[in-house]
Amino acid sequence: MDILKQRILAEASVLNSDVLKVDSLLNHGVDPELTMEMGREFARRFAGETVTKIITVESSGIPVAFATAYELGVPLVFARRKRTLIGDADAYCERVPSFTKGIVTDLIVSRHLLKAEDSVLFIDDIIANGDAARGLLRIVDQSGARIAGIGIVLEKSFQAGGRTLREMGYRVETLVKIKSLDGNEIIFED
Amino acid sequence: MDILKQRILAEASVLNSDVLKVDSLLNHGVDPELTMEMGREFARRFAGETVTKIITVESSGIPVAFATAYELGVPLVFARRKRTLIGDADAYCERVPSFTKGIVTDLIVSRHLLKAEDSVLFIDDIIANGDAARGLLRIVDQSGARIAGIGIVLEKSFQAGGRTLREMGYRVETLVKIKSLDGNEIIFED
Q1: Which residues have a Cβ under 8 Å from the Cβ of A44 and sit 6 or more positions away?
Q2: Which CATH code fits A2-188?
C-alpha cells in the first residue's frame, strides 16, 4: 500500500534499529479513513477464503481488525491480555511475552466466542517476533476452528515473526514490509 | 437505541447487581454493523457540535470510538493504560482506578496527539463510576483542548459516573441506560 508507506515516511520515527514508533498511525492515534482502506485491502486479499470471524489482540490491532470485519460482514473478537475481575473462567488462555511491553501477559478468549466450525482470519497492526500471534493461533487451535489466514499491517521482516508463521504453513499477507531500520532510516522491501 | 436494548436482553448476562457481562457485544466480541450504527447515532447526536478529534481509553471503547470517528471524518486517539517500553516521555498521564479490573492504572496520551485548538468528543462503551472518564477529561484539560461532549454506549445509571459528569457541566449522551440489575434482571430507564 503506497499511501501507507508515504504516511509511515512522513509520520513514523525510528527509535532504534528494532523499534519504529508509529503512534500517530497505528497504535495510539488512528486515521479512520486510512484504516478502513487497510480493511478493504485485507478483504480484497482474502476474498477467496472462507472467513466467519476476525480475531485480533487488544489494543492496537482493534481498529484495523474492526475495519476488516466490517468490510467482510463478520464478527470481530479481540483477545484480552490478562484476566479481569469479571473474566470468564470458561476461557482459552495462552501465556505470551510482549516485545514492546517487555513483560509476559496472558491472552484470553472466552470459549463461547470461538466455535469449532469457525474459519478465523487473524488481523494485527505490527508483527515483530510473532509471540502474540503464535499464542493467539494456539488458542484458535484449541477451539478446533480453522485459520483462514493472517493479515498484518506492518511487518518488520528483519525480525522472525512473519517468516516463522509462513514456515508454519499459514498464508500471511502484510500491507507494508520494512527490511531495515538501521542508521535511523526506514527501508521498505521492494 | 431499541436494537441495542434487544441485543442486550438476548445476549448479556447479569453477574451481580453491579456488573453486566456484555462480552459478545461490547468488550470482547464485536458486531461491526451494530457498532457502526452506534457510531452513526453518536455522529447524529453531536452533529451540532464542533468535533476535531475522538478520544477513548483502550480497549473496549475502541470499536465504537473508531466508528464514531469514521462517521464524523476526524482522527481517533485512544489513551493507553500504563507505559510501554516505547512509551513517550512527553505524554500526559493520569492515574485512575479501574472498576472492572480492580486495579489502578495510568492513562497515557502523547502530547503531540492533543492540541490546545482541538475540540474533543470522548466516546466509551460503558460507564460505571466514571473514574477512567474523569481521568481522561483531566488529560484533555491539561492539553488545553475543549471537551465537545461525552458519548457512552451503556450507562449504569444506578452508579454515579454519568450523573457526576453531567453535574460537572458536560453534555453526556448515552445510547442505553440501565437503572437496575437487581434480582438478576436488566431494567432499562424509560
Answers
A1: none
A2: 3.40.50.2020
SS3 A187: strand
3-state secondary structure of A157: coil
Give me Rg for the CA atoms of chain B: 16
Cα(A29)–Cα(B190) distance, integer angstroms? 37
pTM across the whole model: 0.95
Cβ(A71)–Cβ(A40) under 8 Å? yes
Say if the ipTM goes beyond 0.90.
yes
Per the model's pLDDT, the better-predicted residue between A82 and B140 turns out to be B140
Contact criterion met (CB < 8 Å) for B33 and A73: yes
d(CA B6, CA B29): 17
- Coil, strand or helix at A142: helix
**Subunit contact A30:B75, Cβ cutoff 8 A:** yes
Q: For the segment A95-150, what is each residue's pLDDT rounded down to a tens digit? A: 998 766 677 888 999 999 999 999 999 999 999 889 999 999 999 999 999 999 99
| Whether B21 and A86 lie within 8 Å, measured CB to CB | yes
Q: What is the pLDDT of residue B98?
A: 72
